[in-house]
Amino acid sequence: MESNGIIRIDDENFEFPIIEGTEQEKALDLRTLRAKTGFVAFDEGYGNTGSCESAITFINGEKGILRHRGYPIEQLAEHSNFVETAYLIINGELPTAASLNAFEGNVLRSGTLNANMISLFKGFNTSAHPMAMLSSIVNALGTYNAQYATNVRKIDLEHFDTAATLLMSKVRSIAALSYRMKVGLPLDIESDSSKFYTEDFLTMMFSKPEIEYEDTCGAAKALDLFFLLHADHEQNCSTSTVRMVASSGANLFASISAGISALWGPSHGGANMAVIEMLESIHASGDDGSRFIEAAKSGKAKLMGFGHRVYKNYDPRAKILGKSAIKVLEKIGVNDPLLDIASRLEKAALEDDYFVSRKLYPNVDFYSGIILKAIGIPVEFFTVMFAIGRIPGWMANWKEIAKNSKSRIHRPRQIYTGSNERNFVKLEKRG
Ligand code: CMC
Question: Residues 68, 156, 308, 315: which is the catalytic one?
Fold first, then answer.
């Protein structure tokens, strides 16, 4: 039975329908609020705003639950891999053996970039940030595949499957080439479709002339798990950006390029870089972590990798990555002091009233940097790894918007706080 909620303004009651998601999340449907009342809802940062209906990912931040298409992240992390989870997120169902084979084959065969695209890397300074390169080149990828990037929804949707496998594959080559450009390695690399997704990526990134990269420590497996755990996370800053851009009818490549830019910031994907920088500075200062905890409590520092807008409990991905970090370091035989500092910070924070009362727990970025560092990924490329992992989620969200014939361009309102109307004074009279 449909029920309504009432908003009372002055002496008047206004009724709005209550809508309920499949996990009993309730929302007041305020789409007619302004028309009925003349008011708009003010929710800076959108912490209380359901910006869309989506069937892709469910999070219960209070309980620490994350599910993609209904499947708990713990089960996917244990039994699936990145490519299969990407298929699930994009298509809504787990693949059959035949459909996974076809999807994986298409992804693995699409990795090589053409010579004109490779020459784009030569135009960047070696100091260019890899996220800037990634965002630019993903957008440029649309110009090299213009038939899939027409900004005509019907056409872009018809080509979605091809565009999606191409993007998921080539994002690795773009990341590898930006690394090679920065460190002065030859750019004439080719993807090898006989290798697995992550193994091929690491080979493209780290192989030297005549010396092919060899994965001796299970790096590909650890990175695959990292990608899987980042594959989607409902309406975060970058995914909502992708949806915002897509809502105007923009093509997949342009929308995802915008998502990459949104991910770059230190409050979002850039946090994995910031965590390592924080751990390194704690280590260099000889602090065991306790001075830093005090600084975070007094507002002088931020405990990077802690806290989340949605999780008010342990981020389930952080639990899995914490265990994976220990395993990876054991396998490599490295005793990284940063892992000890991270464990001490985590323990101290989880016992401290400042963090407990604010429900601040480790998030996905807290341990991920330790894994990436251990497998040889430079700190500057950490957020690029996050972006590669998040591509399936962004694409699924783009598709959801594009397929919804009723979706409207995203166009929020604002509360204007500037000057009231003024009369223009000509320059010569302004003194
Ligand atoms: N260290 C110390 N204090 C913190 C932290 C932290 N990491 N995070 C939040 N707080 C405090 C904050 O100062 C505030 O205190 P008070 O109530 O006294 O003013 C209180 O906790 C509530 O914080 P908030 O700023 O309202 O929380 P938010 O939901 O706006 O921000 C956040 C969430 C993730 C941006 C924030 O927790 C943060 O900056 N964390 C560190 C950066 C980080 O790890 N980001 C990665 C997020 S997860 C990956 C992703 O989604 O991209």
Answer: 308
Q: Note the CATH number of domain 4-50.
A: 2.20.28
pLDDT in tens, 280-317: 999 999 998 899 999 999 999 999 999 998 899 889 99
Nearest CA to ligand 1 atom 38: 307
Which of ligand 1's atoms lies nearest the C-alpha of 238? 52
Is the CATH number 1.10.150.170 carried by domain 72-216+238-254?
Answer: no
Residue nearest to ligand 1 atom 2, measured at CA: 302
Query: Does the beta carbon of 304 sit less than 6 angstroms from any atom of ligand 1?
Result: yes
d(CA 342, CA 293): 11
Give pTM, 2 decimals.
0.93
Burial class (CB in 10 A: 0-12, 13-18, 19+), 314: middle
174-209 residue pLDDT tens = 999 999 999 999 999 999 999 999 999 999 999 999
Q: Is-contact 156 401, C-beta < 8 A?
A: no
Q: Whose CA is nearest to atom 31 of ligand 1?
A: 309
**340 in catalytic set:** no
- Cα 146 from chain centroid (whole Å): 25
Q: Where are the domains of the chain?
A: 4-50, 72-216+238-254
Shortest-distance atom of ligand 1 to CA 236: 51
Ligand 1 pocket member 302 (CB < 6 A) = yes
CA-based max dimension of the chain = 80
